[in-house]
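Researcher: Please generate the 3D structure of the following complex. Treat every line as part of one assembly.
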Amino acid sequence: MADDARTDEGLMLAYQAGEALAFEVLYQRYRTRLYRYLSHQCGDAKLADDLYQDIWLRIVNARADYEPLAKFSTWLFRIAHHRLIDHYRRNAREKALLWESAGEENPIEDFPAPANLTPPAQLERLQLKARINAALAELPEPQREAFLMAEESGMSLEEIATATGTGRETVKSRLRYALSKIRYSLKDLL
Amino acid sequence: MTESDLKPGPRDPGLSSLYRASAGDEPPAALDAAILAASRAALAPKRVPRLPWWKRLAVPVSLAASAMLAVMLSLTMERNAPQVAETVTVKKSAPAAAPVAEPSLVPGSSPLTAPVAKETLPVQPAAVRAEKQERMTGKAAPLARDSVMLPPISAPATVPAPPAAAAPAPAPMPAPMPAPMPTEDRLAAPAPSTGKLENRATERGRADAMSAPAAASAGASAPALEATAKRAISESPRPETAWLEEIRQLRREGKIEEAARRLAEFRQAYPSYVLPEDMKSSGK
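Model: Done. Output below.
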């Protein structure tokens, strides 16, 4: 199953044609990436589970209308992006507003340093996961999303821009700030 | 933070490796199973709600019933097809051609009844009696037959004699058309159950041929002629009785051989008819 040489788009088209196995291959390729993206974005495992299942079910239900106009990863994370926005609009108005009016010129000094800085270096390795999570949690939502899309799906700036419905330069800026902040938070580890 | 920290590009290799080293989140297995099951269920063909049996069978049953009805009607029509197809000799009124006619056996028959044409006709069941009556009496039988199957035609029994016919005829009797003597071909084909569909057109043509000159010669209207024909038919005696009476008449006239021949014809036509004593005694 894992050795299937078909592209993501080819697998999706095969699933559209009725091949259930193609979807399983596709699912295995993206299950961890999407789940980590959601869990880092939400910060809530239960909510991440719900969103994760909902997004995949949307993929399943949208198979009949699927057209390989873009990379499958772009399509998948765009759905995830919109699903997150919908969730924030329903449950956290302030977060949705943050998404919609996120300033890109915030100097890095405006952000507080990671709250849980740090113990000694040998412990930091052991606490790597917690520190990265904390670093990501400190990021504004758009920047964190750009970082996660780049890391989890390997999407280019253009693809992230397509998935998030923004411009390439905006994505570039968000990603640059995100990297800088994370680097700053984890500078002792780098 | 310096400007060099803001490197353009989507990923930082060092940070990526660090991130991946820390990444250990996996979706729960139950979530995987649920999503894959949903993906397979979406591909399963949706079952159409099953209709009740009487709705599912409505169309084939109605088609079968219609086909059976059609077959039964066809068989009924086939079995009730005309049972008598006899070759009859139709003698048309043709005074000018009187010598061609066979000698009439009925006393007082008019030369107006001289036959001029012979045609083979199928006779429908309703017209059988009239056909047989024609054999025996020669009175209005063709009219009876034709009146059943065909549009009204002239009845020679009541139609006034045409002016042309009056000249050679001794007396243009308003009597019914004399019985055309059964010819050999008539006698040879008495089979009543061999309906000849191909003869129907012939009969219709014959009827037209008969009615046309008759109507033309009589100059009477069609409804009047039809009424006259019907009256003649209703007043005519039973065929069997008339036939026997004709045989008696022949005997009285001393035409023994002719009477015997007619009796043989009668017995052939009515094999189940119980002959009167006088016929039995002399017919044997």
